[in-house]
Amino acid sequence: MHISKLASELGDSATLALNAEAARLRENGEAVIHLGGGEPASPAPEAAAQAGIAKLQTGRVKYTPVSGTKKMKEAVIRYTQRHYGKTPLLSEVLVSGGAKQALYNFLLSAVDPGDEVIFPAPYWVSYPDMVRLCGGVPVIVQPPKGSFEPKAADLKAAATAKTRAIILNSPNNPSGEVYSQELVREMAEFCAERRIYLVQDDIYHQLVFFDDSPVSCYDFAKDHSHLVVINGVSKLYGMTGFRIGWSIAEKSLTAAMNRVQGQTTSCPSDLSQECAQAALDGDQSCVAELRKSLLENRDALLAELKNLKKLKVAPPKGTFYCLADFSAYEPDSSKLCKYLLEKALVVTVPGREFGMEGHLRLSYCGKKEDIIEGARRIYWALEDSAPRTIKIGAKTAERMLK
Ligand SMILES: Cc1ncc(COP(=O)(O)O)c(C=O)c1O
Which of 1, 200, 242, 252 is the most exposed place for a label (fewest CB within 10 A)? Predict the structure, then answer.
């Protein structure tokens, strides 16, 4: 049967293929370590779980307004006041089925066929295909060599008459980089002047290790009509499966996004909105605890990676990802990824997926002992100075000598 050109042209996800291979190995009883994950291991906050139970007990889980319940939108407004010092209007808030849907709502509302959307590498793996699915053309700007922060001048130089939006994701997936105030300021000002949307994908915004107040585009623009801030409960509250995100954008853009959402999913889940609202309004100690455990995991990972003498790694400033330069061991990241899975049973994600060949993304959102074990296996598989044999599960594995 026919498959559309659009769907056929979507890139096959190397990540999904790796996950499938890891699952197959696990089913065969192999001791696989997963350093490829994208969600915190922590459970949803107790308040969210209780709110869900109470909602289910009413037996009334129905359609909500397209843009979300008033209760949830008011919780988003309070959240925005607390963390951004801005009070959006109800008409500027749109609750969606995850930050991903919020981004789709935006792209479908702002991008005409052939329009360009700029974002820097390394980028979230989904951006290029999301832009293409909406008829747009992704324009990728590389940072200077050895850096994860793009130059404002390079982003500006990439803008043309067809540019509709620039997306900044900081703290950044996959690098853990937090962009400087100067970059955010320059881009907020440039986008205001050129009437280009500046999309701030803030899904990791509280997951910053040494500064509780990450940079916000709101601080640098008097007029907010070109600013779109995307957020959600997935990463901060360990609520990936609830699928709740939101956007804050000017009223007429939000109205357009609302029309798009109305004709795609009708509304976000009533049950999940109830849970997400309870997470936003409830005890926030879970976020501080998550940050603390992620910092411990990050430091444990970095300590182990020090043994890899040819590895270049910058300590991530936030998120739960580390993008390390393995090119001195193997420049082809997909090949290296495959080798590490076969040889050491460790799942990593090739940097090529994020526009940064030669690197591997290592996630540290799992258990600390697994992170340490995974890094030790990578050391054993790649470094000549490592012991020749290692225990992997019940087996003793031997490294080939070069
Ligand atoms: C940068 C970035 N933006 C958006 C998302 C999507 O988040 P959600 O689960 O809310 O759809 C992710 C998820 O991995 C992400 O890494």
Answer: 1
Q: How many CB atoms lie within 10 A of CB 70?
A: 12
Every domain of the chain and the residues it spans: 5-43+285-398, 47-281
Q: 389 forms bridges with which residues in the sheet?
A: 398
Ligand 1 pocket, 201 CB below 6 A? yes
Q: Which two tokens stand for residue 384?
A: 């000549």
Which pTM was predicted? 0.96
Note whether 118 and 166 are within 8 A (CB).
yes
The 10s digit of each residue's pLDDT in 28-79 is 989 999 999 889 999 999 999 999 999 999 999 999 999 999 999 999 999 9
Dihedral of alpha carbons 145, 149, 150, 153, sign: negative
199 lines ligand 1 (CB under 6 A): no
Tokens 């050391």 sit at which residue? 379
The backbone region for 336, taken as left when phi is positive above 0, alpha when psi lies in -120 to 50, beta otherwise, is alpha
* Span from the CA of 202 to the centroid of ligand 1 (angstroms): 9
pLDDT attached to residue 213 = 65
Sign of the four-CA dihedral 76, 77, 79, 83:
positive
CATH 3.40.50.300 fits 47-281, yes or no: no
Residue 33 DSSP label:
E
CATH code of 5-43+285-398, in short, is 3.90.1150.10
